Amino acid sequence: MSRGEARGRVPGWGGGHSGRRGRGRRRPCCHGDAGLSICRGFQTEKDSLHSLTVSTMIHSLFLINSSGDIFLEKHWKSVVSRSVCDYFFEAQERATEAENVPPVIPTPHHYLLSVYRHKIFFVAVIQTEVPPLFVIEFLHRVVDTFQDYFGVCSEPVIKDNVVVVYEVLEEMLDNGFPLATESNILKELIKPPTILRTVVNTITGSTNVGDQLPTGQLSVVPWRRTGVKYTNNEAYFDVIEEIDAIIDKSGSTITAEIQGVIDACVKLTGMPDLTLSFMNPRLLDDVSFHPCVRFKRWESERILSFIPPDGNFRLLSYHVSAQNLVAIPVYVKHNISFRDSSSLGRFEITVGPKQTMGKTIEGVTVTSQLPRGVLNMSLVPSQGAHTFDPVTKMLSWDVGKINPQKLPSLKGTMSLQAGASKPDENPTINLQFKIQQLAISGLKVNRLDMYGEKYKPFKGIKYMTKAGKFQVRT
Amino acid sequence: MSSNSFAYNEQSGGGEATELGQEATSTISPSGAFGLFSSDMKKNEDLKQMLESNKDSAKLDAMKRIVGMIAKGKNASELFPAVVKNVASKNIEIKKLVYVYLVRYAEEQQDLALLSISTFQRALKVNGRDPNQLIRASALRVLSSIRVPIIVPIMMLAIKEASADLSPYVRKNAAHAIQKLYSLDPEQKEMLIEIIEKLLKDKSTLVAGSVVMAFEEVCPDRIDLIHKNYRKLCNLLVDVEEWGQVVIIHMLTRYARTQFVSPWKEGDGLEDNEKDFYDSDEEQKEKADKRKRPYTMDPDHRLLIRNTKPLLQSRNAAVVMAVAQLYWHIAPKSEAGIISKSLVRLLRSNREVQYIVLQNIATMSIQRKGMFEPYLKSFYVRSTDPTMIKILKLEILTNLANEANISTLLREFQTYVKSQDKQFAAATIQTIGRCATSITEVSDTCLNGLVCLLSNRDEIVVAESVVVIKKLLQMQPIQHGEIIKHMAKLLDSITVPVARASILWLIGENCERVPKIAPDVLRKTAKSFTSEDDLVKLQILNLGAKLYLTNSKQTKLLTQYILNLGKYDQNYDIRDRTRFIRQLIVPNEKSGALSKYAKKIFLAQKPAPLLESPFKDRDHFQLGTLSHTLNTKATGYLELSNWPEVAPDPSVRNVEVIELAKEWTPAGKAKKENPDEKFYSESEEEEDSSESSSDSESASGSESGEDEEEDHSGDSGEDSGESGSESEAGKGRAAKHAKARGKGDSKDVDKEKENSKSSESSSGESSSIEESSSDSESESESESESESRTITKAKEKKTKQDRNPLTKDVSLLDLDDFNPVSSPVVLPTPALSPSLIADLEGLNLSATSSVISVSTPVFVPGKTHVLLHRMSGKGLAAHYFFPRQPCIFGDKMVSVQITLNNTTDQKIENIHVGGKKLPMGMQMHVFNPIESLEPAGSITVSVGIDFCDSTQTASFQLCTKDDCFSVNIQPPVGELLLPVAMSEKDFKKEQGMLSGMNETSTTIIAAPQNFASSVILQKVVNVANVGVVPSGQDNVHRFAAKTVHSGSLMLVTVELKEGSTAQLIINTEKTVIGSVLLRELKPVLSQG
Q: What superkingdom heads the lineage (chain B) (predicted)?
């Protein structure tokens, strides 16, 4: 309601902004030397100030919630009216689903680049040519930073912490160009809110701005703050692998890949220099590193050598070469049938373990988007709980652990719309699962060594396999 | 909610509503505006009071609330005076928030801002001497963010000062401030450029990204500022922060395109699809000129390519994409393949990243299928993908489809067609249509599949199928009566207008093929005419008109009935069309001359629509740019220039080493010891040092300690500390590299050896490039040069072999991919008719160039050559001839037909091609093994050989069950051509462009009877597979052809002169082939 009303009151997006429009139109001439003389000409005009804006990478940022309200705006240069978002709303309406809103929307004088995460659209306004991935990647980094700061990134949290958000954004971009995006540095400039600090702040009335500005060793190791001290020195590494797979109707694998990451939580005093080596580094087909990893060393010796950032960070993500056959740890037996004349359909799925290397499969959830014709389902699970949303037609079944002796199954009937013809495709089944203490690719960390500091750190490695985009076609 | 809309209104309403709705509470109702107004004033008074209080906590609280207002887009401008007073607050937190406020409102409240400037300036001055670099930087940041023109001089001073600051962080902020000042006052450009020039010399990785950004903003055309810093930027790149990397890589891409010559050699067997990439006419010519001299990659060019490679491993998608576009635009085509893996990796990322990356892959995959073929399965669609991602993936799958994988793909498409996402299902059907046209083997399968879809339940699917089938049938004018009949039946059930219209059009177009059905359809539609959609009505009218012309006996009345209905239709288009048709087809006294041609007008051969990728034309935008994503030129887009024909002087990038020598003395030892050290010594060392700082197994202990101590001077300290052993290794590498380059030269030299003159001169040139770029080390330089020379002379063969493996992985014509028969296809494919393929190939070609279109060859009695004599073949005889057809195995291959005869009295079993010994770049598609050949039996098989436009011999072994025989095929030069149809005008235009070096001519003397046009035609065509160009003059005969491999034009002109002489002129950029052809034609034409 609010959006429609709001727009109803604004006479188009020209209206009161003719001045701004004019600027937009003239702006292009400010590039290149040919245009310069023209720009000079404009200076004599009254609104010379407005005609002289030169491009900046990210001009403004709007945060829009799912009901279409702009709940935060930040401008790094002159203010861009929020009516520019009307173009975005238009695209949003056309796309019907939030996921389908195009990430790049051209408007007459600006370009809107957006990212959709946590049910919030982060819309960046730019005016000139810029690599779109640059902006998109930056927006994602902003979201990551918020998440890092506040634990969750949601509308109420951002509204509650608007001052911190503002300060963080101010540090992240200068004149529209990224300035400090490493969370280590940011946290030194602006302290993240903690419960204790929030209480203290309300009593003393202070903010989260670091009370002492760091003396700044920025040039040496840009991702690590200085003067780190811990009483317990510990370094944890999680090797997490995700299986992306498409399984055929008959159970054969159409495509399967393993994507892995190594997430680290390093709490070490001083400036430790770590090396991490693998038993079988050749498995890693394609890798991308945190900037701290020394690339040359990896190239020559296949050893990860780095001075870690302080706290949580993603050390590495990798892809296991497609040549290696991927072991698929689960199978799904399914029998989903619609009959043409009857208004009932049969639905039956069973999940079972396949190649699990003796480990238990946990946290199994099955979701499936059923065809529109399905009105309701009456199902009986042998374990776990299931729900079916008759509006979105989404079936989800929280299975839990798989017991190989007694395979979990979900059986029952679907009631179909009377008279409707049977849908021509059976639904695909999406699977989620976890296997602890197993890296399905067989990747193994050999050893972790620390140089540069004298103490003995506590080291821990954990392996986990998860389902990524795991789909079974039926 | 209402408060939000309220704020919205106020924002856009401008000044008069500024006081309204400044409070964030959501209880405001628009009706209470007046009450609100007063209470709001109070609120602001409240804030003002808090700001003026003595307590910092109250001030801070007020500032927080004000910042909250700003964040919500509410106007807080009237608090300006109260806020600005606090600019000098000693509390850092308050100060920071005041800065936020000031930056936001200073522009709007200039007068008031000026009042505050003095306070502010004082604060700055104090800060200016602040020992903390962050405070200095932040002061500069705020000052430069206040967009008030009157402080420009102050800003200028501050920037100048900061650009000389000891802290790189402050210098980085100075670089940012340059852009801000420039946007405030472009008059300062010259001064700012000076500062940029100074900052470009900065060696800190922190500064590099920002200053290049400033460069791009202020003076992107001053490429000369980059020269001296080029090598340094390349070497620093790995250590620059990620955002800076993106900017620098994009800038260096542009730089490289202006400073180096193209590394893309034509005819090196690597560019299969990309030939038509930059195929404008001047480009062609440019390429032709370039081929005259062997290509040597400038070491600086190589440096850039090498130093960006590690960045493909970056976690930042923008960096990976930036490197990918750099490789795409400036790396040799054989090396660009390495980017695909990284790009595919990005597909795991968020939806937005996927979207952009997929778009770029779509563009790339059109030109170089091979790059992404191994990753085909990564583009398979998941039901959970957003629709836009699905459609992009589909696009890429289509681009990657070929004979080898089409059956798998079609099976995959079958799943997609059934998708619940109907938009995607419809797109899949379009895709199947495109596959059907691009891969002829499966066109019937696809067509059958589409026909099956016609019985689908979903109307959108059916409609889309109808439309695609219509296009397919139009493209293949073969008898498809059955399908048309089937579709006619569908007319009763389909309601989607586009589909109905398509069916009607098809029936009308083929009304003579379905003579019984067509009138019946007309009868039915006449009945429903009034209730049809406008689109359908138009097609009914068309159908009526066509039937009237072909079958007036049965349909005359019906048509007239329809025309009458149309006459009174509500839609004026339909009324117009009705009137027009009536005048044309119904003979009456008024009808003019046109009605005679009615049949020609209505039943003309319609050109088939081209089903091509929407990404076809995107390649003229630099990849990875906003313009590419939008497919329109975005504001501020900088064009990527074409490669220069001649590289500008590379010595401009040389940096005086002396200047640096002082700083580097500790490391200098190694430098002197190592005579191999190369020209970019400075930069190499820097790289090495950064390398060694990261290579720290042995030194890590001491190094990390050092790190802590190090301040801004860290870089140089590190350098001096520990470049030792590593730098040596680095130099060794550089030397090796130089050698490799030398080899590269020689390869090219030997390739062009026929063109000895020009090659010699240019090899001289290339060595001179090296000479000039290597300042000090004459020793190493001469060494490498002489080495390259010897290789040139001696190791011809070896270099050729060296090349082979290179071509293999990139080449599209990998032989394994071509097994059309063995690959399982959903339905049995009918035997291929080469002529059909020729048709389609013609189509494809006409899409890329308006001039070059393959025509059918002039018939000549085929000359057969002996491949294997029956004596030497132990009874197996083989002959070959060139059928002069486009080859069905690949459009760069010459098709060769081999006739095998069994002259023994026993079966010969398992005849196949054994080992092949092909010169580099050459490809051969062999025939399927023949199980057995009966005594006295004979069989003809066809093979395709890509001769790479040379007359080199293709040697291979013809094997039977028991024996192997080595055989050779050497093509006559005339068989390396395909005839081309073009008009005289086009011919002259092309000829005009192929003058000078590209023209060879000779004079022929012969008896006059030999100069009869038919004789000349016969003689020329006998020698070469050329097409005749219609000529307006009797004494000039023109022939046109293109080379099979590279598609270069070959224009032959025979101009008859008086006195039984004639001038024979050949224009082609393939000068070698041209001159050989000239040699061959001359005796043929002159002899009696």
A: Eukaryota
A 183-242 → B contacts, CB under 8 A: 189, 204-207, 209, 211, 213-222, 226
Tokens representing B804 are 């082979």
CA A6 – CA A13 distance, rounded (Å): 12
DSSP state for residue B32 in the 8-state scheme? G
Q: Which residues contact B916 (CB under 8 A, 6 or more apart)?
A: B924, B926, B954, B955, B956, B957
Interior angle at CA B501, CA B500 and CA B507, nearest 5: 90
Say if CB A241 and CB A259 are below 8 A apart.
Answer: yes
Instruction: Measure the CA–CA gap between A185 and A217, rounded to whole angstroms.
Output: 10
pLDDT along chain B (1088 residues), means of 10: 40 39 39 43 73 82 88 84 79 82 81 67 54 74 82 85 84 89 87 90 86 88 87 88 90 89 63 43 47 70 89 90 92 86 88 93 88 88 90 92 87 86 88 85 82 76 82 71 79 81 84 81 86 88 86 82 88 88 75 71 75 77 87 82 81 62 38 40 41 40 40 41 40 44 44 43 41 41 43 43 40 36 37 38 34 59 78 82 75 81 81 79 79 79 80 82 83 83 81 78 78 79 82 81 82 81 84 82 76
State the virtual CA torsion across A365, A366, A372, A378 in degrees, nearest 10: -90
Burial B797-807 (b: 16+ CB within 10 A, else e): eebeeebeebb
Q: Which residues of chain B have a CB within 8 Å of the CB of A271?
A: 704-705, 707-708
Helix axes B299-308, B242-259, angle to 10 degrees: 150
Neighbours of A97 (CB within 10 A): 9
Say how many Å lie between the first and final Cα of chain A, rounded: 41
Neighbour-count burial for B993-1022, b at 16+ CB within 10 Å, e otherwise: bbeeebbbebebebeeebbeeeebbebbbe
> Under 8 Å CB-to-CB from B132, ≥6 apart: which residues?
A213, A215, A216
CA distances from residue B15 to B39, B83, B101, B245, B708 in whole angstroms, order as listed: 19, 20, 18, 43, 54
Query: A416, exposed or middle or buried, with CB in 10 Å at 0-12, 13-18, 19+?
Result: buried
pTM, two decimal places: 0.66
Q: What is the ipTM of this complex?
A: 0.83
Q: How far is CA B795 from CA B307, B799, B808, in A?
A: 31, 6, 21
Q: C-alpha A74: how far from its chain's center?
A: 21
**How far apart are the CA of B345 and the nearest CA of chain A, in angstroms?**
7
Residue B345 makes CB contacts below 8 A (sequence gap 6+) with: A286, A288, A319, B320
**Is the Cβ–Cβ distance between B264 and B271 less than 8 Å?**
yes
Q: B350 in contact with A at a CB cutoff of 8 Å?
A: yes
Question: Please, which residues 327-366 of chain A have a Cβ atom closer than 8 Å to chain B?
Answer: none
Tokens encoding B1012: 């009869």
Helix (H) or strand (E) segment spanning residue B319: helix B317-330
Exposed / middle / buried, residue B136 (Cβ in 10 Å: 0-12, 13-18, 19+)? buried
Helical residues (DSSP H) of A306-362, grouped into ranges: none
Q: Return d(Cα B1087, Cα B1085) in angstroms, integer.
A: 6
With beta carbons less than 8 A apart as the criterion, state whether B278 and B269 touch. Answer: no
Nearest CA in chain B to A367: B384
DSSP codes, B831-865: PP-HHHHHHHHHHHHHHH-SS--B-PPPP-PPPPE
A317, A290 Cβ separation under 8 angstroms = no
By CA distance, what is B57's nearest residue in A?
A205
Alpha helix (H) residue ranges in A151-178: 155-160, 162-172
Distance from CA of B421 to the nearest CA of A (A): 10
